[in-house]
Design a protein that fits this description.
This protein has a single domain, classed as 3-Layer(aba) Sandwich (Alkaline Phosphatase, subunit A), CATH 3.40.720. It is 34% helix and 14% strand. Strand 16 and strand 17 form a beta hairpin. The termini are far apart.
Length: 500
């Protein structure tokens, strides 16, 4: 019996179609790619400060055409505050709101505005003054609430954007829109886009890392959906790697008992060889992802324990970040790990802290929320600056929208005061990475309800962020299902006034 002929007789129809289709498909694919490749730049104007190809190759992976021009920022730390911080209680001081406290909101301010079902029609809702006093801080004179005393100390390093606005009135669609440019899940998130386009400065750690935290004992129910750091239609190797808040930051980072590193290396080599055979046969990018992720996991067995070990941090640095810095799972701990990731070449670090949904807890839980996030956020900016990293690290602090300047609840029950969702105006701040320090850009009306000057749509904010990283948001596309997609969809403009 000839074993080769016997093997041919045993080939299933699925195997036959899979293997023979590969050859035909590859020929067709090569023709299509010549005309319309995924990584193609559909618009390629000459840019005055186009950077040499040799300088682009300092990164591992990424597209050869990126960055389009010399970047100001090399990495991003996004301090995303889930469930919408209240702009009128933290950064957007409105004397008129204090003056009109308990008066009905003027109809002219809310005409044709849609609010969440918890508010319904806003007519007759009572205006609510800021809970804590505001003061002007630093040489810039930025208005910052007493809720944020540590952020107030670094106000001259910050660029406040007070005229942000979006289109969604509920959390998950608004968060997804902020992070992926679309309300519905399925698009690549910002970190995935950057990991795909720019590659990484290191092969020891993922280029896109996510950490989550929540204020203890909060009553604000929160869910961190995986699509907040998903890769969408990009290969899955570009999705965010979530570090856990307890135990080892990454599951199975330690070898099982009795398994040596050399033995693990031998296994991975054999598995990679098998996967490579399948990749050569079928050309499935997810097989390439599997190979790459096995290799990354092996390297992380050395790099992650070193990353998580804070024993080399001075006590002064630990004190800077405040209580909880050595407790995994806290926002303070995540902030110092974010700085360590930035030092080691991680390109996009997404911290998501939940608990800001103060529908009925402005006078109680908002204090806890600010206590847990204010000091670590300011410490991160200071720590990056003194290490020479702030210049090319863009730090962003903000949520998916703001909160209503009018009351949700009973004005006579102060312990249960709250504010509802408010997409029409809110505040975020940025630091480092090529933004102007010590400025406040944009204004809301005298009640903080609508943008009155220099509006910044979420797509404008995304376009500006990409610009700081050396990317023309209109040229950075990925072809999927017959269309060239981009982070900013078909919208967005760079806000030049924010650039240093």
């Amino acid at each position: 019996m000839n074993p080769f002929l016997e093997h041919q007789h045993q080939v299933t129809r699925r195997q036959l179609l899979g293997r023979t289709a590969t050859g035909v498909g590859a020929a067709a694919l090569s023709t299509l790619l010549k005309k319309d490749g995924h990584a193609e730049d559909p618009i390629q104007p000459q840019v005055a400060n186009e950077i040499p190809l040799s300088e682009r190759k300092n990164r591992i992976g990424g597209l050869p055409s990126l960055p389009h021009f010399a970047p100001k920022a090399k990495r991003v730390i996004y301090l995303f505050q889930n469930r919408a911080p209240t702009h009128v209680d933290l950064f957007d001081w409105k004397p008129e709101l204090k003056k009109r406290h308990t008066q009905p909101v003027p109809t002219s301010y809310i005409k044709n505005r849609r609010f969440s079902t918890m508010t319904g029609a806003a007519d007759g809702k009572l205006l609510l003054a800021p809970v804590e006093p505001f003061s002007q801080r630093g040489e810039s004179g930025a208005w910052v609430s007493d809720f944020m005393p540590h952020t107030a100390e670094v106000a001259d390093e910050l660029c406040f954007v007070k005229s942000l606005h979006t289109e969604q009135v509920n959390h998950a669609p608004a968060i997804n829109f902020n992070l992926s440019g679309a309300e519905m899940p399925g698009r690549p998130t910002l970190g995935a886009w950057l990991s795909y386009g720019l590659g990484s400065e290191t092969d020891e750690l993922p280029s896109f890392v996510v950490m989550t935290s929540i204020t203890k004992d909060t009553t604000c129910g929160q869910i961190f959906y995986d699509f907040y750091w998903g890769s969408g239609f990009l290969p899955s190797r570009y999705q965010g790697v979530k570090f856990r808040g307890s135990g080892d930051p990454v599951l199975y980072v330690s070898n099982p008992a009795g398994i040596s590193r050399e033995m693990r290396r031998d296994w991975l080599d054999d598995i990679a060889a098998i996967n490579q055979i399948k990749l050569d046969q079928f050309g499935d990018p997810e097989i390439a992802t599997r190979i790459a992720q096995y290799e990354m996991s092996f390297r992380m067995q050395s790099s992650v324990p070193e990353l998580a070990d804070l024993s080399d941090e001075s006590q002064e640095t630990l004190d800077l970040y405040g209580p909880g810095v050595t407790e995994p799972g806290t926002f303070a701990h995540n902030c110092i790990i974010a700085r360590r990731l930035a030092e080691r070449g991680c390109g996009f670090i997404q911290l998501m802290h939940a608990g800001w949904d103060q529908h009925n807890s402005l006078t109680t839980e908002l204090y806890n929320q600010c206590r847990d996030t204010d000091q670590p956020s300011a410490a991160l900016v200071m720590d990056l600056k003194r290490r020479g990293l702030l210049e090319d690290t863009l730090v962003i602090w903000g949520g998916e929208f703001g909160r209503t300047p009018f009351l949700q609840g009973d004005i006579n029950n102060r312990a249960r005061w709250g504010r509802d969702h408010h997409p029409y105006a809110y505040t975020a701040w940025m630091a480092g990475g090529g933004v102007k320090p010590g400025i406040s850009y944009g204004q809301t009306d005298d009640l903080g309800i609508n943008v009155a000057e220099d509006p910044v749509h979420v797509h404008d904010f995304q376009a500006t962020l990409l610009h700081l990283l050396g990317i023309d948001h209109e040229r950075f596309t990925f072809r999927f299902q017959g269309r060239r997609f981009r982070l900013t969809d078909v919208h967005g403009k760079v806000i030049q006034e924010l650039l240093a």
